[in-house]
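Note to self: user wants both folds in one dump. Writing first protein now.
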Amino acid sequence: MKLLHIADLHIGKRVNEFSMLEDQKYILKEILKIADEHNPLGIIMAGDIYDKSVPPGEAVEVLDDFLTELAARKIQVFIVSGNHDSPERLNFGSRIMQHTGVYIAGTFDGRLKHIVLNDEFGPLNIYLLPFIKPAVVSPHFQDQDIQSYEDAVKAIIDHEKIDPQERNILVAHQFITGGSKEPERCDSETISLGGLDNIDAAVFDVFDYVALGHLHGPQSIGWETVRYAGSPLKYSFSEARHHKSLTMLQLGDKGALDIRTVPLHPFRDMREIKGPLHELIGTHGSSPENDQDYIRAILTDEGELYDAIGQLRQVYPNIMRIDFDNSRSIEEINSKSAAYGDVAQKSPLELFEEFYLKQNNVEMTAEELGMMEEVFEDAGGAGK
């Protein structure tokens, strides 16, 4: 039996004000092509299906098209809500859709949604655990003292009395650690401050595989069978070096599990380029096939630049961000104030001179000083 594991679609997401919908449509079509090639019995979608609790209409249409294509292929779908999803909205229509093989656990009602698949090796139990918080779980287990996320998940699993002799898969969207080891994180993820949402992987001993969502880097935690599929697209420049993939499971008899990754290729990559401006718009602009990528440019120029973003956009129309790595930026990191010494003893023009120097790494010319002195005088402030 083959299953595909994906997570963190974040349909409808915007990155640096760029809509990712076109890229998301493209990558979902690629996932469908992979499904056509490998013919899985089902596909697991481990939360953060949408990027917002109230997704835009276009995002809902994208998910509707994807589920419709999967249903037409007779591929069963197993979905849980993530922390970005509205549990109730995601749950809408779930009782009707399960008759077409689309199983959704948006809300938690005290029990895990349980689906049984069968093949020549017997039953395969798939349990769906939507994103939960202790406050959501406590009312269902009033005889237990549930204080932490781990307490909550442990109470839920213990209550199910899962048969360890059978094959069992859990689909969840939580922050899992392996003892003292924490997984790799990205800037685009939401993690609770102080690590209060940590759940140790040992809680999942009864499961043959735990299909996780929440973290955007594909990785296993604790042991190989507790795995984050990662997001299918890069959603921050902290992910620029990621190799996105989906996870494919091949299940045989109890204990026989093959885990592989299938690479995903985006419509546009997200990458970083670094160097002086003239080099980035020259040498690095010589690969037209990559010019449509989402770009973070790190400029190393020391002098003042004119319309750097405009010049870069002529070569990289989807440039998202510019940063600097030069002596000025290093000095700014090491300094918490834009002015030296006693600010109260300095004139507005002196303060502006210091600000200009820190921003541009060069001193103002005599002509520029004269212009700014006139500006301050016209504004009613002392230029000197």
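First done. Writing the second protein, which came from a different request thread.
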Amino acid sequence: MSMSLFERLGGSEAITKISSDIVDLHLSNRSISNRFAKSDVNKLKKTVSEFFITGSGGPNVYKGADMLAAHKGMNISAVEFMAVLDDALEALQKNGIGQREQEEVLFILYSMRSDIILV
């Protein structure tokens, strides 16, 4: 039996580190940083980590809203969406995640596009 994406990413501890790096990159990304200006950074990192852990096949720890509900009314542009994906890729690379896993994560994130952009 092959390992899950969750396992190949290094489990909860590694995904928590990647998620923290993603949020840090979002906060410094001029294309999207204004979206996070008033955020509770620690809560945001926890939520992103839980979403990522659950979404990659780990324990079901995410209790937040689905993507459509979470982004409804935010009017997120395609440029902003791609900035998020770019930050995710950079964080994955920074944490030494393999090419196959990077592609899988980006595929999963991209599959949520219609629930995020201009909803």
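Dump finished. Worth passing along: The chain has one domain: 9-115.
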